[in-house]
């Protein structure tokens, strides 16, 4: 399999394993990532996903041999677009654990996820202009949302990458890790998330994405609506009861 799956508690780890092509996206990789997200979304016992690559490479982006052969469509899926993820609607958070280069489509896959743990040896960039291409899988609009305008333009127009430390300073990366330990860092971050009520985490993620540019009236109304929806769940009562009884909550995801 080009995308391996492993369950660790309430976390699904998805690992791109195509080292002979620097984990470049082909049809198998795209279908494998989509299958992993399908499993994450459908299984109520899975609360967080982690997407990673191999020790040497996260992902070199699109398989240029397929593009040259006129087979770019093989890297797309019906639900997720490029790599099965860049346009995929979902409710559960996904963390990327990046070792080595995450370039072109590799950066765009990273931008499609929610949080990033990166090895200090990793790099990010959209070098498509060096091959007379454009970053068509989200890089041209997601990078300017996360980075200062001029930095994003520099990445796009020069095609040159930035290293993980610079990406961390700019807010593109949440946490840095020693080489070879990005997955451990991602699992630690996932553990912090899964300590919380899963439905509340999902609502919080959805609202923070939805309301980023909303006016205060709309944002307050939608936040209160979400609170009322959570009030009808079993975990809502469990959270309050556990606090009163001074014990850790036992979340059910219901």
Describe, in plain words, how this protein is organized in 3D.
The chain is an alpha/beta fold and 254 residues long. It has two domains: 3-194, 2-enoyl-CoA Hydratase, Chain A, domain 1; 198-244. It has ten helices and eleven strands. The two termini are 33 Å apart. 38% of the residues are buried.
List keywords for this structure.
254 residues, alpha/beta, 2-enoyl-CoA Hydratase, Chain A, domain 1, 2 domains, six-stranded mixed sheet, three-stranded mixed sheet, 17% strand, globular
What share of residues are in beta strands? 15-25%
| Order of SSEs | EEHEHEEEEHEEHHEHEHHHH
Across the major sheet, the strand order is 1-2-3-6-8-11
Structural class: alpha/beta
Global Rg:
19 Å
Largest sheet: 6 strands, mixed
The helix count comes to: 10
Helical content stands at 40-55%
Shape: globular
Q: For the residues shown, what is the average pLDDT?
A: 97
Write down how many β-strands occur, each being a DSSP E stretch of 2 or more residues.
11
Instruction: Please name the CATH topology of the largest domain.
Output: 2-enoyl-CoA Hydratase, Chain A, domain 1
CATH architectural type of the largest domain: Alpha-Beta Complex
Low-confidence stretches: none
């Amino acid at each position: 399999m080009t995308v391996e799956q492993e369950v660790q508690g309430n976390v699904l780890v998805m690992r791109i394993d195509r080292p002979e092509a620097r984990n470049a996206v082909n049809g198998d990789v795209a279908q494998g990532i989509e299958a992993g997200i399908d499993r994450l979304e459908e299984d109520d016992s899975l609360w967080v996903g982690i997407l990673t690559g191999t020790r040497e490479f996260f992902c070199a982006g699109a398989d240029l041999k397929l593009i040259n052969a006129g087979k770019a469509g093989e890297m797309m899926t019906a639900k997720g677009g490029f790599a099965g993820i860049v346009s995929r609607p979902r409710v559960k958070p996904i963390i990327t654990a990046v070792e080595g280069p995450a370039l072109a489509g590799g950066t765009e896959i990273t931008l499609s996820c929610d949080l990033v743990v990166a090895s200090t040896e990793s790099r990010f960039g959209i070098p498509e202009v060096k091959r007379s291409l454009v970053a068509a899988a989200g890089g041209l609009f997601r990078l300017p949302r996360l980075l200062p305008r001029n930095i994003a333009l520099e990445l796009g127009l020069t095609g040159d990458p930035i290293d993980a430390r610079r990406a961390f300073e700019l807010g593109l990366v949440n946490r840095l890790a020693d080489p070879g330990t990005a997955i451990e860092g991602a699992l630690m971050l996932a553990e912090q998330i899964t300590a919380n009520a899963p439905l509340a985490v999902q609502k919080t993620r959805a609202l923070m994405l939805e309301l980023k540019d909303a006016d205060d009236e709309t944002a307050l109304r939608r936040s209160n609506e979400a609170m009322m929806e959570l009030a009808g769940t079993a975990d809502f009562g469990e959270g309050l009861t556990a606090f009163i009884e001074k014990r850790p909550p036992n979340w059910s995801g219901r």
